Amino acid sequence: MPRTSPVFVLAVSCAACSASSPNPFCTADFNNDQTLNFFDVSAFVETYLNQDSNADLNGDGDLDFFDISAFLTQFLVGCPDLTDTDGDRIPDFAETNDGRYIDLGRVGTDPLNPDTDNDGIDDGDELLGTLGGLDLPALGADPLRRDIFVECDWFAGDFDGFIANYRPTPEVIAPIVDAFANAPVSNPYGAEPGISIHFDYGQGGPFTGGNQLPGAPLSIIFDFEFNIVKENHFDQNRRGYFHYAMFAHRYNDINNTSSGVAELPGNDFMVTLSDYGTPQIMTNTIMHELGHNLGLRHGGDENRNWKPNYNSVMNYRYQFAGVDNDMDALGDGLPDYSLGVSIILDENALREQAGIDGVTPIDWDDDGTIDPGAYMANINCRFLIDECGGDAVGCWDDECNLLSDHNDWNAILWSRLETNVDRDPEPEIVECATPSWVLD
Question: Mind listing the pLDDT tens digit for each residue in 93-145?
Fold first, then answer.
């Protein structure tokens, strides 16, 4: 009887695999024990006689002589060397390190890096599914392109006389998917840049994890009550792979009008638009709260808010209004994170001719002219500017500072998500207060 070469243990599992399914890299190893012997023959025969599709080794949809031939051919030849240097459950021989997926014998990943695309999810999980039975390949995972997964659970019903359904719609999700797909974030082997973000809001197919939550609470305490709901409605095998987003009426208090709350960095966030949500506002708020999970603050790498030159939905100035596409410091609708290309603005020597890109003038004091000289003004405000050291009504602060942009896309944290509800140390919780003008 043929013998396989000495190998490291390769515990291969995919969502569709069972105890009687072949090793994907050696079909004759039918019981996945790294050894070819009578038990593999017995397991294959039993699976074949039970008309189990796992015995369809040639993948033609039929169980016939050709499947028996495929098994016997592999059994007689023996398994290839299944050494797995980086421990990602993909043997070295299949990790061709060229960025080209052909088949399971030539997958294109790096044999010395368990996470070739550096998105926090191991190559084996993205190619084969997880050991916990999460079918990441069916959900769109790709070990050669960065992926983010988000489960959306929502409340709907009568919120003390206010009828609402907070489930996100395809109209809400599509602009976020586009924004991430077009992100200037590199992928390995010079592949097209961008991030594949996958939202499960119960839309069918493999996306059935998102679900309507029971009841219609006026408020959910974050993260105490949040974690209780999450424990009951978020599958264990998604922990460590999915962000968990809850869409509710309000959080922490029935009078709280904040648009959301999130861990920074972390796994969890809430979108709480109560009675002022529109598809655009929900789209941008989802991306805003997810940004906190990814390590971004309201000023990018700082908490200073309302900066005209920080062109990101993380900025209250552009959260609901969308980012500024024509450099007039006014939002134009679409969601995006900042590229960090705006010039530094010195509020102690503000120059209208330079605007926020160094080229496009902005009439900061709204006097109808572009002033040729520099002047002092506090401009990280909602609408009107204020004097330095003034009462700063509607402004983030009452000081004049240097206002800087931030490259959000380059700063995303790709570390593996936490699997436990209780974390040590506790993550920072960022509450996103709603501007009063939205409610007026």
Answer: 999 999 999 999 999 999 999 999 999 999 999 999 999 999 999 999 999 99
AA letter at 263 = E
Model pTM score: 0.89
Taking the CB of residue 420, how many other CB atoms lie within 10 A of it? 9
**Distance between CA 200 and CA 312 in Å, rounded?**
24
Q: At a CB cut-off of 8 Å and minimum separation 6, what does 242 contact?
A: 149, 150, 151, 200, 209, 234, 267, 417
What is the bridge-based pairing of β-strands 156-159 and 196-200? unpaired
CA dist 359 and 380 (Å) reads 20
Nearest by Cα to 282 from 315, 313, 320: 320
Q: Which residues of 68-101 are buried (b: 16+ CB within 10 A; e: fewer)?
A: bebbeebbeeebbebebebebbbbbebbbbebee
Q: Alpha-carbon distance 271 to 305, whole Å? A: 20
In angstroms, the CA 9 to CA 348 distance is 64
Query: Please, are residues 297 and 303 in contact by the beta-carbon 8 Å criterion?
Result: yes
Q: Which helix (H) or strand (E) holds 350?
A: strand 350-351
Residue with tokens 């120059």: 351
